[in-house]
DNA sequence: CAACTCATACCATAA
DNA sequence: GTATGAGTTG
């Protein structure tokens, strides 16, 4: 037992051994957060305070859940069965499958991912003749998800204008459509579970009593619904025996745009009467200058719970800052530095290049490629999101639940079998008339269209019959053949990769069976074994029988259903290149939770980082600053910051000021590789334009600029000052003489178009 | 009905 | 520069 607590610092030890009361752990970057979380669980079990089945640990990503499980198995001699460790969505899926009747869902309900949801909404809008100019499908989707993430149904929303009334109406219709089709979206998994437990008291009390200790990772990322869900599980305020142990860092809250509410941290403190607030401020990752930079930067935020990281590692190197003429020269500088690092013995996988938006990666990728340096870009398409894989999945979904109209529409004419737009319209009309699914409406369509459609139905039915007794991998194989997907891609010239991906599904199915504890030979279609016999039935104090979701998956769903859930809930890795010795490229968002010896943070320009859209959002700049904080704290030993004077973005050249974050970093911690001219960036800019040798495209650009400036006396790229708007850069000049107007980027004051004969501008 | 061209929009993202 | 969607042609 003591070796469990060995090597913990005082703060960590205090957190791990807290009494059984709700607690909030403010865990700074690199402070050993996951370690505290897992050791806490191990300690609770080892000291006999709780049995494994009393533990519920919730994470946001499968990766985090897996990591916890791995660490726990290493720490505990006993097996981890009985503990519930998983993502919000994974746990909800399990609960809903078990209690599908109470939740009013078919046992084979299917999960829509974001793509599916969007297409479902497009379908809905079309069906109800909604003008998709006025109500773009994406907006409707954000509206619906936003409502669900706050725990609101359509009837809970009081619309404040006609447009919103319409959206609420669409929300209602969307939910009805999903219910009809037997599908749920991601937010619905949580909301359904929440509603189920709210309304079913015995069930709620059963789980509340079971889970004596609930632990949450990345608590700052919870949305309103997730917090309500946790409160319900714990029994509000922990009064029903549940104890909530929340770990998070308000300074690393970077997901407000998807509904995360940092306010949950203070709400939790208040509502659960948290007396145990522990700050983990000892950082085991970064050298001093890097940590100083992070601390000083984040101090500019007003809304903080307050935390200051410290390290024993010594100052280390200063943060290196580089100003480039263009995005291209920024990239070549990165190559140069990367080469130096590798030459000095750095491993490529310990070098990370971070950027604010994916669009920035192209130039850097190109440069790395030309230089022959292996690299790996995070965040591409994941396995189960690839078109061909989604097609195959759609066929499988129809095997399990033919009323899933999304799946039906995806493959009814793919590969092409002569079922076109008109046929579908006819079918849709029939389905609407009888209020049934497209699949069920096929018999009502006559004529040529009807023949083609019933051919498709026969294909599905036939395949289902044929595969009745087959195992999941066999089923997948047959579906790939019968659907003619393999044959189709064989005729495409770029189809080889796609065929390979499809073939891979068979092995994915095999692997899935062994990981989930299904027998390899178990018939894929066979429904769950009788639940009562699985020993999952529990009788609660009221004598009511509760089926507890704590049972092997095989008792809750068929191998096929389980595999389909898996495909939706674990999209898989994006590339199989893991383990390769490669430079790591990713957005700052996806870098959260990772660490590297050497980190480049690129594109530090106003409008890009902080992103221009952030100034419009409430507290947007504070979130961007937290994002920068996350980026800085990824680095262990060496950190590079860079920005470019000009940048091609979305096919046009942009001229941005350097990021305001440079003014918020401590000077002592920085080392400028290019001259920094005081007091502001403008001087440096000017000298760079006048003196720096221009090469390649830079020269062409300069030429363009020289031409454009003719007559007005001003030049694109020139820095100016305006009495009202402050300092800015001329981005474009139109017209000439008295009609000359300049488009000027005033940074935080925004982009303005000023008449050059009227506006009073000063050169800088 | 299917294959093609052309125009348009674009921040970050896990489940 | 790429992905979606509408419009156009065989």
From TrEMBL:
<keyword id="KW-0067">ATP-binding</keyword>
<dbReference type="GO" id="GO:0003677">
    <property type="term" value="F:DNA binding"/>
</dbReference>
<dbReference type="InterPro" id="IPR000212">
    <property type="entry name" value="DNA_helicase_UvrD/REP"/>
</dbReference>
<keyword id="KW-0347">Helicase</keyword>
<protein>
    <recommendedName>
        <fullName>DNA 3'-5' helicase</fullName>
        <ecNumber>5.6.2.4</ecNumber>
    </recommendedName>
</protein>
<feature type="domain" description="UvrD-like helicase ATP-binding">
    <location>
        <begin position="6"/>
        <end position="287"/>
    </location>
</feature>
<dbReference type="InterPro" id="IPR013986">
    <property type="entry name" value="DExx_box_DNA_helicase_dom_sf"/>
</dbReference>
<dbReference type="Pfam" id="PF21196">
    <property type="entry name" value="PcrA_UvrD_tudor"/>
</dbReference>
<dbReference type="GO" id="GO:0033202">
    <property type="term" value="C:DNA helicase complex"/>
</dbReference>
<keyword id="KW-0238">DNA-binding</keyword>
<comment type="similarity">
    <text>Belongs to the helicase family. UvrD subfamily.</text>
</comment>
<dbReference type="GO" id="GO:0005524">
    <property type="term" value="F:ATP binding"/>
</dbReference>
<dbReference type="Pfam" id="PF13361">
    <property type="entry name" value="UvrD_C"/>
</dbReference>
<dbReference type="GO" id="GO:0005829">
    <property type="term" value="C:cytosol"/>
</dbReference>
<dbReference type="GO" id="GO:0000725">
    <property type="term" value="P:recombinational repair"/>
</dbReference>
<dbReference type="Pfam" id="PF00580">
    <property type="entry name" value="UvrD-helicase"/>
</dbReference>
<feature type="domain" description="UvrD-like helicase C-terminal">
    <location>
        <begin position="288"/>
        <end position="593"/>
    </location>
</feature>
<feature type="binding site">
    <location>
        <begin position="27"/>
        <end position="34"/>
    </location>
    <ligand>
        <name>ATP</name>
    </ligand>
</feature>
<keyword id="KW-0413">Isomerase</keyword>
<keyword id="KW-0378">Hydrolase</keyword>
<dbReference type="InterPro" id="IPR014016">
    <property type="entry name" value="UvrD-like_ATP-bd"/>
</dbReference>
<dbReference type="GO" id="GO:0016787">
    <property type="term" value="F:hydrolase activity"/>
</dbReference>
<dbReference type="InterPro" id="IPR027417">
    <property type="entry name" value="P-loop_NTPase"/>
</dbReference>
<dbReference type="GO" id="GO:0043138">
    <property type="term" value="F:3'-5' DNA helicase activity"/>
</dbReference>
<keyword id="KW-0547">Nucleotide-binding</keyword>
<dbReference type="InterPro" id="IPR014017">
    <property type="entry name" value="DNA_helicase_UvrD-like_C"/>
</dbReference>
